[in-house]
Amino acid sequence: MPTPLAPATVATIKATVPALEAHGLTITRRMYERLFQNAEMRDLFNQSHHGETGSQPKALAQAVLAYARNIDNLGALGGAVERIAQKHVALNILPEHYPHVADALLGAIGDVLGEAATPEICAAWGEAYWFLAELLIGREATIYRELAAKPGGWNGWRDFVVESDCPESETIRSLILVPVDGGPVLRHRPGQYLSLLLNLPGRGVLKRNYSISCAPNDRAYRITVKREGEAGRPAGLVSNWLHDHVRPGTVLKVAAPAGEFFLDVQGGEPVVLVSGGVGLTPMMSMLETVSEVSPDRPTWYIHAAVNGRVHAMRDHARTLASNRGNLRVQTFYAEPEAGDRQGEHYDLPGLITADWLVKQTPHERATYYLCGPKPFLRALVNGLLRNGVPAERVKFEFFGPADELIEDAKQAA
Question: What domain range includes position 307?
């Protein structure tokens, strides 16, 4: 445990909250500009959150602001520390990388605030940064040790070969990955993700996270990838490469499973799994796991898709439900097409709402697991909280930096 912050440091950090509210995003953008001048540091990060979406600077700005606001109550940040540690382990962040971030952050504060960044403020933020860094380094060291010690576990990047692939819809494809070395794989927690490291010609080193879409086992992982870029959205560089170029026999570098969003397999309370679009991937891992290890556990799986053309793994989910009396599957289509038959391909038209979930599921006792696009999650997470579902029973995963989504949920709670 790092040395507690000095009272004067705490007071100084609290006093910088207004400046962070006004200039935090500018500071974090400048921080990444400075940091990425070092190619080694740039290659550690998922650049889609910087260049393609620009969401990571905003997420970091909100995290820094939350840290400053809660500097005298750091227990409130425990969940955020765990999320960051899991992301860092997935990216293979090591202790020697932290000084580079410190230099970039403190330099950015000086660049943006100018003369207002007094020596006192810079010293306080230096102390506060290293306090948090030591917390993260300690937690990450524990995670690395645990991963390496478990059967099939490893640290760093391990070569996996694509054993087989399967189209799941017009835009979604599954890949089965097995270790090149022939050894076992670490049994993931249902809901966790894998990180891939790719070196694409002309693009350099790229990293992306993909949820594991199968139940834990000792032999293989399945990832289920959506081709991004349709309907006017920016093309997903890696997702398109995985669709267009990866075939059985392709070797990919993979980090061990990570993530703090996973099913509590020990609990016996009802479970409600809710997904939108390709957010179904961690839910399929959870669904298969419940079916295998706790078939008597009351479970609801509610999925939202645009229509049947893009609805992945529909038959698989229905097959799992047909084999279990306690598993109920219901599907919403936002824009059903002529060939989509209600009662056969989908159950209800339109969108899932929090009010519908509360009425159709045992919200007094159930734990809700949600994954999908940001608007989908914002509406449902906040809606469940407003309907009285305790925050500890509403768990969610967002593909990318969660930024204001987490803050919205906290305020709704």
Answer: 271-412
